[in-house]
Amino acid sequence: DMLDPERLIQCPLIKHHWIRARRFPYHLVKCKESNPEIAKKLATCPFNARHLVPQADLSDHIMKCNDKAFVEQDVVSRSFESPQEQLNNGSTWQAPPSAEDWET
């Protein structure tokens, strides 16, 4: 199951590293820091930062990446909204009223 946090994933930098899915993002950061020579030969997928591929293969990966569908679906669904609806779908946070008077 792809959503199982306990499944093992192979590290794209060091092939004998097998990491639980729930720890994978943390491992990538540490492994990239520990192996900068290997890391600089890899490119990060624009659709999923967990996808590290050889730089020469990035364009091919982008064309085939399964996560691209999620981004495209979001772009298409947003294109049907009016600009006002897009603005309204943003943050609704407002600062709470304040009794402070900085002038006094």
Describe the structure.
It is a single chain. A hairpin with a 7-residue loop joins β3 and β4. It contains five helices and four strands; from the N terminus they run ββααββααα. The N and C termini lie far apart (63 Å). Strands 1-2 form a two-stranded antiparallel sheet. A two-stranded antiparallel sheet has the order 3-4. With 104 residues, it is an alpha+beta fold. The protein folds into two domains: 1-40, no CATH class; 42-77, no CATH class. The mean pLDDT is 84.
Distance between the termini: 63 Å
Instruction: List segments where confidence is low: pLDDT < 50 over at least 5 consecutive residues.
Output: none
* Strands in their spatial order, largest beta sheet: 1-2
Number of helical regions = 5
Q: What is the radius of gyration? A: 21 Å
Domain count, please report it: 2
Per the principal axes of the C-alpha atoms, what is the gross shape? extended
The overall pLDDT average reads 84
- Biggest sheet overview: 2 strands, antiparallel
Amount of beta strand: 5-15%
User: Quick one: how many beta strands?
Assistant: 4
Approximately how much helix is present in the residues?
25-40%
Q: What pattern of helices and strands is seen along the backbone?
A: EEHHEEHHH
Alpha-beta classification: alpha+beta
Organism: Loxia curvirostra
Protein name: GTSF1 factor
Domain CHHC U11-48K-type: 8-35, 42-69
Keywords: Metal-binding, Zinc, Zinc-finger
